From TrEMBL:
GO CC terms: cytosol
InterPro entries, per database record: AceGlu_kinase-like_sf, Asp/Glu/Uridylate_kinase, Carb_kinase
Name of the protein: Carbamate kinase
Domain Aspartate/glutamate/uridylate kinase: 3-292
Keyword annotations from UniProtKB, A to Z: Kinase, Transferase
Entry similarity comment: Belongs to the carbamate kinase family.
Keyword Hydrolase among record annotations: no
Family matches, as SUPFAM superfamilies: Carbamate kinase-like
GO biological process: L-arginine deiminase pathway
Amino acid sequence: MKKKVVIALGHRALGTTFPEQQVAVKKSAKVLADMAEAGCQLIITHSNAPQVGMIHTAMNEFAHFHSDYTGAPMSVCSAMSQGYIGYDIQNALRAELVKRGIFKTVSTILTQVLVDPYDEAFYHPVKVIGRYLTKEEAEQEEAKGNHVVEESGNRYRRIVSAPKPQAIIEIDAINALLDAGQFVIACGGGGVPVMEQGNVLKGASAIIEKDYAAGKLAEMTNADTLLILTSDEKVEIDFDSDHPAALEHITTAEAREHIKAKQFGETAMLPKIQASVDFVSGQEGREAIITNLEHALDALAGKTGTHITL
């Protein structure tokens, strides 16, 4: 059987602007196609931080100058970013696969991810999003129940929560495609965060951390490997000292000790490590790897990267 791998593409694999993204995904597609040729079944997820911010800014700026229109909720902006990033990835990967004589359908699943309305994260928003606001606009946002943070120069921006993913709504569709031997792009940008209200799913004003969603996707597709791509070949500890150390193979217990020692900060690397630990701890035989795009294939072969196992 082929090795089932969830690949979480980071910002560097996607670029920021439309032209940058089209160039970046072609480069990423070559690496993904290499993995396919090496015998991996691909389940792809990706970040969306610059893209969803751009969409949120554009939609709400438009509404600001056109009174007949309303601003776009965060859930809608997340769905838009999933659509257009997935569109570029699936087309670039399809073209690369066809070039190599591999004829597989690559499908993007617009994915909703369930969050807990009582998640503590809703009381501590951390993700800054959207355009700069005047003081008057900031007060209007707060009157609606939104959170606003003041930045330098008397400028304000919205700040939203990052709740943990509880379940993936479209998981049956994702698994059906995987059972048919296809490649899937899902949970882009962490997925669209939704809350259950009776039999209705309501979009939450939040952003799910991409790495936690990738871990949940790996868990619910019963993947063998979670491969998180970032900017560095290996994860380092003591990085702010004179003797930083690169981690190669660590256990989940060792990873937890490093987390307790605050070796991974609070934002950039910590979610990657925690998501890896959660995934690997769920079942024997699982592995999580953290590396960069350039070394992804070698990392899968065990030659480099940071590997986390039980």
